[in-house]
Amino acid sequence: MLVFALIWLGQLVSLFGSGLTSFALGIWVYQRTGSATQFALISLFTTLPGILISPLAGALVDRWDRRWTMILNDAGAGFSTLLMALLLFANQLNVWQIFLGISAISTFNAFQLPAYTVATTLLVPKQHLGRASGMVQVADATAQILSPTVAGLLVVTLHIQGVMLIDVATFAFSLVTLLLVRFPRPETTTEGKKGQGTLLHESAYGWSYITARPGLLGLLIFFAGSNFVMGVVSVLVTPLVLAFGPVALLGTVLSVGGSGMLLGSLVMTVWGGGKRRIYNVLTFTFLGGLCIFFSGLRPSVPVFFFTAFFYFFGIPLINGSSQAIWQSKVPPDVQGRVFAVRRMIASASLPLAYVIAGPLADRVFEPLLAVGGPLAGSIGKIIGVGKGYGIALLFVVMGVLTVVATVGGYLYPRLRLVEDELPDALQNI
């Protein structure tokens, strides 16, 4: 656990630095182009390359030493950031170079994330995997809360170039923590021998492993659907809140949500998720659906504060519990391949959500609840009529879909009993 804690600290610092750069580059692109589309493309290039290369990356992670994989990929991401900072210092940085740079970082992360997960499985005793997942969520929450605030201050004093150099320094700190430790090698299991072969075969093996286990496949599909809803909500929460209050309110709502996420992460770290972690996944997804539903049904400042806090409070408990299930049920020597495919499938719905959320709100739901709109005299009497109420109606729909999907997941025995039907791959007690 001490070795894991040291690695975790390095990754926490690195995540914070990456958050600084992400915020600073977003400001630079928007100020330079004045285009919301160009700004939105940053999110696309941050996620899509990593998703596409995940199966290949997972197969290579299982072949390579996990520690050196993390070292080389931290170095690659740090070099990409340094290169963009130097181009900015020379006044030679263009938007397309930023897209190329963040695509490279996304690709490096496709190797980094499964290697980090496998390292956690190898270093942490089975009964503490839930707590370790909680610690990872703490790092994510801390970076999400602190990075935008600190970056906003640093951009004024150190300019964007200085912020990016701080990020490079955080990568260096992470490298030092990795150089100070050693990872145990996973034992070769029957599944590991079965998955050996050509790189193409090993890349596809993660999908074969999951589809042969209906419980894990059901959990994966459940998360893909949940991520789609989360993607729609994350894109539209800004216009929804701004329709009912000033920009300062949006910042406060996001801060309240971040506080809920941090508290949920701490709870997961201390608690560990208990013995029936699948119930955490289903229960807190259900509660999250209710939060989305009520934020649309009664859009107002107090409701936004309440629902943001409890929605984000549940995210670390959902993700941490799911991560512990996967880590305990998948042999460590094939986790790179399996987790890479898992990430690809679960995250593939996010770009779709990013693409359709805006048109759905602007062209379908907002006109429905505009003054004199088709639903103004019916649903409009319950929710309200005017700017922002169409997005609120879309939130109601997303909330209902989440609740229905959660009930369906509970009624599907392979998902509900996934922890009972699949034997533990880890024998350390």
UniProtKB/TrEMBL annotation:
Protein name (database record): MFS transporter
The keyword Heme belongs to this UniProt entry's keyword annotation: no
CDD domains, A to Z: MFS_MefA_like
Xref: Pfam families: MFS_1 (PF07690)
PROSITE patterns attached to this UniProt entry: MFS
The Major facilitator superfamily (MFS) profile domain, residue ranges: 3-417
GO molecular-function terms, A-Z: transmembrane transporter activity
Keywords: Cell membrane, Membrane, Transmembrane, Transmembrane helix, Transport
Entries under InterPro entries matching the protein: MFS (IPR011701), MFS_dom (IPR020846), MFS_trans_sf (IPR036259)
PANTHER family: MACROLIDE-EFFLUX PROTEIN, MAJOR FACILITATOR SUPERFAMILY (MFS) PROFILE DOMAIN-CONTAINING PROTEIN
UniProt lineage: Bacteria, Bacillati, Cyanobacteriota, Cyanophyceae, Nostocales
Protein's UniProt keywords contain Mitochondrion: no
Location(s) in or outside the cell: Cell membrane
Domain of life of the organism encoding this protein: Bacteria
Transmembrane segments: 39-61, 68-90, 162-181, 216-242, 248-271, 278-297, 303-320, 341-361, 391-412
Any one Gene Ontology cellular component term annotated for this protein: plasma membrane
Organism in which the protein naturally occurs: Brasilonema sennae CENA114
